[in-house]
Specification:
Blueprint lengths: L6 H10 L6 H22 L26 H13 L3 E2 L2 E2 L7
Antiparallel strand pairs: 1-2
């Protein structure tokens, strides 16, 4: 059996979230939240004792490359620094945007 949620609890949650709900909205939100809790209760009642744990059920792996500078990028960086009108500590120096 799922937990019942009262309109008073919905009003308290709405106040915490700084939501100004009308009486009609509180009634609808109470019914909606009760429906969600009922669905969670059904999921909670499912027997999963014979279901193996799945640490990585998706089978996906990290496809991002390591964040390392490539030799070509370093060469381009040197060319860019040589073309810049002013540099400082290996960086292009630009005029200040903010005071």
């Amino acid at each position: 059996m799922s937990k019942q949620i009262s309109e008073e609890e919905v009003r308290r949650i709405a106040a915490l979230a700084r939501l100004g709900l009308t009486d009609e909205e509180v009634t609808k939100a109470t019914a909606d939240l009760q429906s969600v809790l009922q669905h969670f209760s059904q999921v909670q009642d499912i027997d999963t004792t014979d279901v193996p744990m799945a640490a990585d059920a998706s089978g996906l792996k990290n496809v991002m490359r390591k964040d390392e500078a490539e030799p070509e990028a370093l060469a381009k960086h040197e060319v860019m620094l040589e073309a810049a009108p002013e540099t400082k500590d290996g960086q292009v120096k630009a005029k200040a945007v903010f005071e």
